[in-house]
Every structure is written in C-alpha cells, then in structure tokens.
Amino acid sequence: MSETKGKIVQRRVFMYHIFSSFAAHAYLFEEWKRKKRKGWSEAEQLPLSTFSLYIYHFLSLSVSPVNQLRVFHILQRADAAMVSDSIPNASIASSNLRDFAKKKRANRSAKLKQCKLDARREQWLSHVKNKGDYKGEANGGVIASIGASVHLENRTRQPIGELEIKTRSEEGIFGDGSSLHHYSDSDSVQSNSPTSLTSSVLGSNDSGANFTGSSSSRSSSSANGSCSGNMSEEDEGDAGGDDCLDDWEAVADALAATDDKQKDSPSSENHEHSTESGSQVDASDQMISEINIPRIHTASANSESGRTDNRRALINCCAWRPDDAFRPQTLPNLAKQYSFPLKSERHLDGGSVWVCKSVAMIPKACPICFEDLDYTDSSFCPCACGFRLCLFCHKRILEEDARCPGCRKKYEVEPIDGEATLDGGSITYRLARSCSMVARS
Amino acid sequence: MATGTNTHHQDSNPNTPAAAAAPPKQAVPTAKTVDTQSVLKRLQSELMALMMGGDSGISAFPEEDNIFCWKGTISGSKDTVFEGTDYKLSLSFPSEYPFKAPKVKFETSCFHPNVDIYGNICLDILQDKWSSAYDVRTILLSIQSLLGEPNISSPLNTQAAALWSNQEEYRKMVEKLYKPVA
C-alpha cells in the first residue's frame, strides 16, 4: 500500500512540476475516475472530495496564476490528507469498516459524539496550528480554507461585480459536491449529512440573497462548518497519516514561501469573518454552531501564535525527512555532493585502478557474484577501503582467507569498531543513497 | 462485524499452510546448485562486460559448450618487444571461481622470463595475490602488461630473463620463436 501511495505522491509531484495546474487537475480528475473504475475501497471517500475540490478549483481558474497556485497547494494538502487517511482504512476489510461505522452510529449518543468530535477537532487543529501561519489560514479544515482563501483572493483582486457571480456559482457547486460526498458515505457519522445539507442550503441562500463581500464570506464559512466536521471525522483513528500531511504541507510551504507576506494580512481578516459567520449560523442552526465554535476558538488562539514561524522555517528546509519512507526516490540527494570526493580519495589509497572504476559506478550488483545488492547489502561496508560486496560473498570470504577483495587486507571482525570505521559507517549510509542515484541515472 | 471477521479467517487460513510448505521445498535443492549457479552468473556477466567493454588488445570467449573454459588472446603492447604479436591463452575456472583463481596458460609459445615452455605463467595475482574482485578482463590486462614488464628476479625462463637486458636481441628471439595464432 505504501508503495502505491509513494507512486501516487511521486506522480503528483511530477505532474505538478511539469505541467500547468490545469493539467494537474485534469490528472487528479482522471485518477479519481480510474480509482472508481477499479472499485477501490477508499475510492468512495477520497475522490469525491477531490472531485468537489476539482470542480471548485476548475471554476476558480480564471483567478490570477498566483492565486491558482495557492489554491492548488491547499488542494494538494487536502488530497494528501485524504490519501493518508485512506491508508489505514484499506488495511481493514471494507466490510469491517462498514460494520464499524454502523456500530459507531448505533452506539453513540449525539451529545457524546459532539464532545468527542470537538475534542478531536481541538487536537487536530492544535496540531495543524503549529505548522505555521500559511496553514493558520487553513485551520478551519483543509477544504474549508479553500473557500476562505479563494474568497479572499477574489475580494482583494477582482472587481466586485465579477466576484459576486463567481462566489455564487462556486458556492452552489461546492455545496452540491460536499452534500454528494456525505450522502455517498451514508455509513459515516450521521451528523455529517444533516450538517452538509443545511450548509449547502445555507450557502446558496446566502450567496443568492446578498451581493456584498461579507455575505459571501458567510456562505463560505458556513460551508466550512460541514467540511471541517467531515475532516475531523476522517481524522479519527489515524495518527500516522499526519506525517504525510506534514510532508505535503512542508512542500506546499516551500513552494509558496514567497506568497507568505501576502497571506499574513488576509489570514487575520479571515478569522474575523469566520467568527462573524459562526455566530450568524449559530442562530440559524444548532448543529453547525456546535461544530463551528471550537474552530473559532482555535482560530483566535492561532492568531496570537508568533512562535509558529520558527517551526515553519524548520519544516521549510526539509520537505521530506531523509529517512522518510514516502520521500520520492527520484529526488536528488545533497549527501551525494560530498560523498563522491571522499570516495575517490579512499580508492586511490586502495591503489588499484580497476577497483576505483568498479566502485565509481557503484555496485548495483555485487562485484563478486553479480547478484543485485539489496538495501542491506548496499549499506554494508565491511572494509575501510570502501570495497562493497554482498553479505553472502563476504561470509564466503570470511570462511576462507578473510581478506578484502579490494585491498587484500584482513577483514576486521567487528567492522564498526574504532573511530575510523565509525567514520566509514556514516559515509556508508550516504553512499548507499548516492549509489542508488547513480544506478538509476 | 461477525461476518467480517469470519471471512477474514477463511481468507487467511488457506494461505498459512501453503506458505509453510513452500520454504522446505526450496531449501532442499539449493545446497549444491547455488554454487555453480552463482559461478555461471558471474562468468556470464564477465563475458558480457568483456564484450561490451571493447578493450583493445585483449579478448576472450568461452569454448564451445563449456563456460568454465575460455580461450583468450592478448596482443603485445606497442613499444615493447612483443609489439605485433598475438598470444592465445586458455583459462579454466574452478567451481569456486571468484574465490579461487582460474588456471591460465599460454597456448601459443611465448618467449618470456615469467612463462615456461609449457605456457605456465608466474604471476602473483594468479596465485597468492588472487582476489575475488579480479576478473577475466583484469587477468588478461595484467598478463598483457606482464609481457612488457617482466619480473626478472623470479624467472621461469632463465634464458629469456638473461636476454631481457638486450632488447634488440630479445626482439629477434621473439620473432624467431613466434608462431602466429592459427
């Protein structure tokens, strides 16, 4: 499963860099269709929100490219969140999942659920909050933030007349998309469907009735209610998925680092709007208010957090941790740059030209038996001369004369022992990665 | 919930005996065949590398039906007394091949301080200095360079060793004794 996910992630990165955002979205849409055809268990959950986002963004394509980029980042994040969420689900049999959902619905009283939902939301938000101010804007739930950010962008960048039409059509369709989503997972928590229903109605009502900027903000944040409720629902029972989300957010942040300045002021603006709309919705619908209230709390808490900048800077510098399993392997490795000089030096010490050559195009295969080196083998460096071989051949040689084929020195019994070999050990690790790079290119 | 777990068990149960049965089957034949298999793979890879490498002055190819016996040729390097001569060699690989050196002999008689009249070669890397990292290509290149730079201190052919200091005479001897490769 992780492999599939890795592929998906890789492909998306690729798409993102090569094609325009439009092409990327067309791709996302195609991917959704493909998954649906395959009948993946998670396809029900993942693509519909993607789909709604797709439509949503499709309509916003007339916005300036910078804003498109932002929207796309958020969409990526939302998508990553969905993907990560679907991973643990897939491991369970789908029937089990359904049973679980049914049972959940039967057993819990609405109030208890609400409490739990709120608590979980608090957790999730506080987690996301730390990611920085760019995400601070997106705090209401990843999907919801699209409504907010696009709306803000519209407000700041577009003539008012255009804005009105746009927001109205967007809201209408977005409402449809979200309600469709909720109906399709009828097994999931019951609070979602009524919420989304009312929200979509509300959304269309608001945008239909009023033609001012503030009204559209209301409609967008009422949509927020349903979506963020949905997000917290998906968030449950899934702690590992956050990592993936982190990564995507880090990537998005790194890419959108230049946009941050512009973002800062709108984000505070957004909080005001959401608060306002929260109270407004509170009067009209209890369910939505219950969902909205914790969000507003965290939003205000978020606006005070200046310390998040440090954290974000930290994340920005490494989109993927080096040990991250989901890091696309095609990404270049910085370690490569300084590992090679080190290497050739070592080889000149070894004294034989051919060894130098055989290691320069580093062992994809064991130089002794020509079998492919697996990960363990390629991170195995038994001799300080840097000559690598597979564990089988090494064992065989140990049984006979126990000399390194590369330098003819006796193998030390404990390869990682003194400081020299310790040094060699760290080099080994770097080389293992750069090796794979070389082999691929 | 109950049906869900049941199907799960049914799914997993048939798998376990099959998985348990598989390993012993594989384990039985491995012991002896793995060795020759790995030698075969190594020799095939070497052959491939040799043919793709395009080293001038050396070549080698297995004999008709036995990949453990190869015939190689070496051309005398430029600016040595062996310039313009080709020598045929035979290489026979032991079943422990990469860990044990192959036996290499000159098929063509070669007037050289470190090659005896039977074609045996005195070269350290073919004896105690052998390393499993050497391959046919490096052996042939080593022998090629040995032609131009003999080790006079431990000669097999004392006459050649004595004559080595006089390169002109030596060249004449080489030409006189040289029998071109058929």
Automatic annotation (TrEMBL), chain A:
Signal peptide: none annotated. Residues 176-245, 258-284 are annotated as: Disordered. Keywords: Membrane, Metal-binding, Transmembrane, Transmembrane helix, Zinc, Zinc-finger. The chain crosses the membrane at residues 12-29. GO terms for molecular function: ubiquitin-protein transferase activity; zinc ion binding. Residues 366-408 form the RING-type domain. Residues 207-231 have a biased composition (Low complexity). It comes from the Eukaryota. Residues 232-245 have a biased composition (Acidic residues). One of its GO terms (biological process) is protein ubiquitination. Residues 186-206 have a biased composition (Polar residues). The keyword Transmembrane helix applies. Residues 258-275 have a biased composition (Basic and acidic residues). This is RING-type domain-containing protein.
TrEMBL record, chain B:
Its EC number is 2.3.2.23. One of its GO terms (molecular function) is ATP binding. Residues 38-182 form the UBC core domain. The active site is at residue 122. It is an enzyme of class 2 (transferase). Residues 13-32 have a biased composition (Low complexity). Residues 1-33 are annotated as: Disordered. The keyword Transferase applies. Keywords: ATP-binding, Nucleotide-binding, Transferase, Ubl conjugation pathway. It comes from the Eukaryota. Belongs to the ubiquitin-conjugating enzyme family. This is E2 ubiquitin-conjugating enzyme. It comes from Salvia splendens (Scarlet sage).
